[in-house]
Design a protein that fits this description.
Layout (H helix, E strand, L loop, with lengths): L5 H9 L1 H18 L5 H25 L5 E8 L2 E5 L4 E5 L3 E9 L2 E8 L4 E5 L2 E2 L4 H6 L6 H9 L4 H8 L6 E4 L8
Parallel strand pairs: 1-7
Antiparallel strand pairs: 1-2, 2-3, 4-5, 4-8, 5-6
């Protein structure tokens, strides 16, 4: 028997990186409090590192979606793979030219488009989809704040209607040096 409700435990687990960054910041402040010409700058550097890690951890936490979409996402050696019950495939990040967030069948999905025009659809709430944050963050010119904002933004009925009639919504990223084939 646990003293913490399962929902609260899950939420605390999702915040583990944020708590670790807070602990690192506290350690940096402690080093700064020891004083001296060496320890104050070292402690300040630790606090600055913790602040950067904390912002990144918070964005990762906001990016990860809860839900039970079918399929599994894997990210290994620069390749994003999705294995779903009805579809799947793999895309190398170096061949990616466009990233969109779509609404398909009442479900939000990422569309990863390659230079040759092939596309891979990955549900936002698929198992392992939180790994996509690091994959997408490595794309040249990617704004991670815009990436997180796109996932946080609630989907409206009008967006669903636009996609239902065949138009894509929300271009999140385009490769700055490559042309996109339509």
């Amino acid at each position: 028997m646990s003293l913490i409700r399962p929902e609260a435990r899950d939420q605390l687990w999702r915040l583990r990186e944020v708590f670790a960054a807070g602990g690192l910041a506290a350690a940096g402040l402690w080093v700064m409090a020891l004083g001296g010409y060496v320890l104050v700058p070292v402690g300040g550097a630790i606090v600055a590192l913790a602040a950067g890690l904390g912002v990144l951890a918070w964005r990762r936490k906001r990016f990860a979606q809860t839900g039970e979409a079918p399929g599994v996402v894997e990210f290994d050696e620069g390749q994003v793979s999705y294995f779903g019950p009805n579809s799947g495939g793999a895309v190398a990040l170096r061949e990616l030219v466009e990233l969109r967030l779509l609404m398909v069948g009442g479900q939000r999905v990422w569309r990863l488009k390659q230079q040759d025009g092939q596309a891979l659809l990955i549900p936002v709430a698929a198992l392992g989809a939180e790994r996509l944050f690091d994959a997408f963050a490595s794309l040249p010119g990617m704004d991670t704040a815009a990436l997180v904002a796109a996932v946080d933004r609630p989907t409206t009925v009008s967006t669903a209607r636009v996609v239902a009639i065949g138009h894509d919504s929300r271009v999140i990223w385009r490769h700055p040096a490559r042309a996109v084939l339509t």
